[in-house]
Design brief:
Two copies of one chain form a homodimer. In chain A, strand 2 and strand 3 form a beta hairpin. Chain A folds into two domains: about 70 residues, Arc Repressor Mutant, subunit A; about 140 residues, Chorismate lyase (3-Layer(aba) Sandwich), CATH 3.40.1410.10. The first copy, chain A, has about 240 residues and is an alpha+beta fold. In chain A, about 35% of the residues are buried. At the A-B interface, strand 4, strand 8, strand 9 and strand 11 of A face strand 4, strand 8, strand 9 and strand 11 of B. Strand 8 of chain A pairs antiparallel with strand 11 of chain B. Chain B binds a DNA duplex (30 and 30 nucleotides) through helix 3.
DNA sequence: CAATTTATTATGTATGGACATAATAATAAT
DNA sequence: ATTATTATTATGTCCATACATAATAAATTG
């Protein structure tokens, strides 16, 4: 009521509603910007902004001259938040603590050499840490750090702050690759994760790099019985015009 | 060379580089739009568009009057693609096939009643299917469909096309919640997934709904030894100006 | 009829100007 | 000194217009 003129958010919301309600079904061309601008009583630039964002979110495809088309719902994306471990545990309302199990500078194994793109037997820093939620082991961290990429790491003791926290502060912007898998627990994991017999582990492996320099590789293991990852993905642009 | 004037993508790229290279470090205010517009020789609207997108990607925070600030790298997001199973297997260059193991309309169990928000013992469609890659079982699908939300499902036999494919076509735009976990194989999974002894399973559970109507709940299980999920997350706006 | 050129069209991007809005700072009033 | 008012500032949004660009359709040519 208080609102007469339509904003680009209104238009984004209306267009999105027409797509999800299949007024404009999958495969269909939607009206061009000029027509929509007239319908809504706004400038073409305003319509353009609204539909651009919908296209960025992947619901329509736009091609010059051809127009804008509703695309079939592609493979679902699930945005998984890989949380900072301490924050995650605090958010659960539990007490977080950290323990350094091992810290050594040793030649890389063949597998790690490959992961870090180093020649075999180059020295690297190897760390093993445990992360607790209320005195229950929540995560076992098995990490290798490339000394050439992060020379300052040699001065770090990691006795009070964990390597992840330190690295995020030292190298805030890096690229990453994650692998998620279910695995049978290794002997190290059985020793440190306090597992029931035959309990599987949920493993997250992460490699991070910056401009082709591989910085670190880490394997994060969790009790299969106690750990899961959840994501909730809602169709965007639902009703933020009412905000 | 061929390019004299700066586009909003150029500016986005330059600003992003200054952030990742810590010329503008975490916590710092960056110059205001007017100043940047003058520096780059463009209109303020152009700078606005560039920085808006960087803000949407979560690298800076903008507040009126206060200005634009580089934010600390928050919890990592990993965008996991939950693929359409058939496409995923074809993309691996393998032959996809599908088998319906069971199809029945039965009262829901207590657990499923909760997942689908139904009163206990309401009838629902229960399906068990197997998805193969070159005659190896790749995925076991255990699905429940809410008959009230999708009445047309009763006419579907699912003998040649899988329920997921059918549902995506029937209800293209729905919200979803995913849970990923590592689990010990159940007897059904051992029977149908062709597992080694004590091999864990990688489980994806998905619930989908549309406007508060829960449509379906599904548990997708995979061999822990053969299955993993990978994501690669790169810092955006690196060099698309060179495209 | 096929191949090439030209016109048309929808989207993509930029501009300068305008006004709105939220947050802060400065000022005035109690 | 505290509180209420007013000014200032950076971002948020919109407009009308202009021109660029990619894709397609139409017209022309060999």
């Amino acid at each position: 009521m208080t609102q007469q003129l339509k904003t680009y958010k209104d238009i984004r919301q209306i267009v999105m509603a027409r797509i999800t309600s299949q007024i404009w079904p999958v495969g269909e061309l939607i009206p061009n910007e000029q027509d929509l601008a007239e319908e809504f009583g706004v400038a073409r630039a305003t319509v353009n902004r609204a539909i651009q964002e919908i296209a960025d979110a992947g619901f329509v495809e736009r091609r010059r001259k051809a127009g804008t088309r509703v695309v079939p719902r592609r493979s679902r994306d699930a945005v998984v938040q890989i949380p900072i471990i301490g924050e995650q545990i605090s958010d659960m309302g539990r007490y977080y603590s950290y323990q350094l199990v091992a810290r050594e500078i040793v030649p890389v194994t063949k597998k790690i050499a490959k992961e870090l793109s180093l020649t075999p037997r180059t020295p690297a820093m190897h760390l093993i840490c445990r992360h607790f939620a209320d005195d229950i082991v929540w995560q076992l961290e098995d990490r290798w750090i490339n000394l050439a990429a992060v020379p300052t790491v040699k001065a770090q003791k990691f006795d009070v702050i964990g390597p992840n926290e330190w690295l995020v502060r030292e190298i805030p912007y890096s690229n990453a690759e994650h692998v998620f898998r279910a695995a049978t627990a290794s002997s190290i994991e059985r020793r440190h994760l306090d597992l029931e017999s035959d309990e599987p582990v949920f493993v997250i492996e992460r490699k991070t790099w910056q401009a082709s320099n591989i910085i670190t590789w880490v394997r994060l293991s969790h009790s299969g019985n106690r750990f899961s990852m959840t994501t909730r993905d809602e169709i965007p642009y639902g009703k933020d015009a009412l905000e």
